[in-house]
Amino acid sequence: xxxxxxxxxxxxxxxxxxxxxxxxxxxxxxxDGWIGPTPSHVKTFNIGPLLAHPRFTLISxxxxxAPLHELLRDADAVYHLAGMPGVRTSWGSDFEAYxxxxxxxxxRLLEACKNTRIQQFIYASTSSVYGEKDGKLSEGMEPAPLxxxxxxxxxxxxxxxxxxxxxxxPTVVLRxxxxxxxxQRPDMSFHRFIKQLLANEPIxxxxxxxxxxxxxxxxxxxxxxxxxxxxxATIGKTINIGGKEKASVNDVITLLEELTGKKAVRQYTASxxxxxxxxxxxxxLAEKYLHxxxxxxxxxxxxxxxxxxxTLYREEEQ
Length: 318
Hints:
Layout: E1 2-6, H1 11-20, E2 27-32, H2 40-47, E3 56-60, H3 68-72, E4 77-80, H4 95-113, E5 120-126, H5 148-167, E6 171-176, E7 179-180, H6 189-198, E8 203-206, E9 212-217, H7 218-226, E10 238-241, E11 245-248, H8 249-260, E12 266-269, H9 284-290, H10 298-317
Parallel strand pairs: 1-2, 1-4, 2-3, 4-5, 5-6, 6-10, 7-9, 8-12
Antiparallel strand pairs: 9-11
């Protein structure tokens, strides 16, 4: 099976490529345009182990210019993970980049899938599409994003649906809930908290720290994402991918203190606009269609990310 993965050098994309290559009949073509907040040297670090794999090919090209019809002609599946991430940076003049890379690129990919033998087009969306809701978030709830970023990702979902209903493209939408772990972007909270704590710097917290998230460890996210491949029952569906437990930001920092043996200097700042107070995934559909059951506890996952960040910055210093 030939599988296209966009955003292959990113956090989730690089892990997904490794997982897909465990299937001995799979070949993976990773595409990455090296855009977004992740520094190039971090993406190089992410993708490094894959480059020597005989069934992996990396194409470093912007999806706005890549010859998509040629690339997709003999592909069996597409995982579309590429895009411009981040809620806080999606306001103002930066929105143009979000519209281009999250909306226009998705539409261009879907157009290229017409008249091909694509068996699945799997679109990576986000819990940000839900907005502010109480209790567990189920896929049947009406989306109400609080940020321009969330709006662009929801637009991508709508594009998937109209191309599915109009042209029969077999789309699947996955909504990720706050994924963390090794290779996480430097601008994401866990990465930033751990780096600041290890460097004996104050930890910057948006709001009062009582906001909670359904934190999803990367290996659980990848297990759920990979389980979609070849699963015809998922076509046309929207499915949450969440974590084993939710916690507040303050809880996370207390756990970081326990795991590192360091006392955090907590520096609270104004709440970030565009972010919901709480997220919590209803995983009923993931359990039904993917037999999804997240395994990694928050404590275990954070311990792994701490070790990764220690290694990452140690290598950068050498």
